[in-house]
Design brief:
single chain, mainly alpha, 14 helices, about 75% helix, globular
Length: about 290
């Protein structure tokens, strides 16, 4: 990765962990992120219309790009839904590091569909990621083996966060291919449009809160998180235009440490020694995976 790409991704990681902090603190429902993605569409409309980017963007985009927009939108909707559900039952310092373990799955896709072979560094990195995930999921960490270790696992938030990571790994690979076809700003706008549609479909079948009520109660938070989420996403897309997706996704996991620290220092979450230990192990593993060539 170039120095500029690393800088963009690190800034993105800090912003990303920040909006996750606000999401956890506010305990927002899925409807909240429908508004977040919808405002991601609205923000750009004045600019796009004044420069006549719309409606020509719809007609000039190739069919292949539309498939990527649709698929990425589906998996990003899954990511946000799983993430929100995880935050409703688990701590930020637990959920965020696990949800950022996408590089592990990205490397698996490379082996299954591209035929890449792991080096020793890759195997060590995967082992550290799995160890870090296990440590983070424990309520307490002991160096001595314990027959009751598995009784301390928080299964539901762990699985929801891991599902978010899986969805993230898939849409990241799709995004890399897409930004080679269209400018990241235009692609981001289309993704927000796609996410709004698919999250809206989910809400039609499992409505829990009134969209109007969520907007009236949390409009300031919605606008703030939408700005932060779009800024973080745009920086990553820009970095993908000059760097390999596996490197970008791996370096982005610096946010796992930021998220764990915010949960512990600002939300006063417990088990800080366990969470920090797991986040450090996880981060080291992700860096090793990202360094594999």
């Amino acid at each position: 990765m170039t120095p500029l790409s690393i800088l963009l991704v690190l800034i993105s990681a800090l912003i990303h962990s920040s909006w996750n902090f606000f999401t956890k603190r506010g305990n927002f429902p899925v409807e909240f992120f429908f508004w977040v993605s919808l405002w991601g569409v609205i923000f750009y409309l004045p600019f796009f219309i004044s420069f006549e980017i719309l409606p020509s963007l719809f007609f000039k985009a190739p069919i292949e790009l539309w498939w990527k927009v649709i698929l990425s939108g589906i998996f990003e909707a899954v990511y946000f839904i799983c993430l929100i559900k995880a935050y409703q039952v688990g701590d930020l310092s637990l959920i965020y590091p696990i949800s950022r373990s996408a590089p592990l799955f990205t490397q698996v896709w490379a082996v299954l569909f591209i035929g890449e072979v792991f080096s020793e560094t890759g195997f060590i990195g995967i082992g550290l990621v799995m160890l870090g995930l296990f440590v983070i999921s424990l309520k307490e960490f002991r160096l001595r083996p314990s027959s009751t270790a598995f009784s301390h696992l928080n299964i539901r938030p762990f699985l929801l966060a891991l599902s978010a990571a899986l969805a993230s790994s898939i849409y990241s690979v799709i995004d890399k291919a897409a930004v080679e076809m269209i400018h990241p700003i235009y692609y981001l706008w289309l993704i927000n449009l796609s996410m709004s549609f698919f999250i809206g479909i989910y809400l039609l079948f499992g409505k829990e809160f009134s969209l109007r009520k969520v907007w009236e109660q949390s409009k300031k938070e919605i606008l703030l998180v939408s700005l932060l989420q779009n800024a973080a996403y745009l920086l990553v897309l820009m970095a993908m235009t000059t760097s390999k997706v596996s490197y970008v996704v791996a370096f982005r996991q610096a946010g796992a440490l930021f998220g764990a620290l915010m949960g512990i220092l600002l939300l006063k979450e417990a088990q800080w020694k366990t969470r920090i230990t797991g986040a450090l192990i996880l981060t080291l593993g992700l860096i090793l995976i990202g360094s594999v060539k």
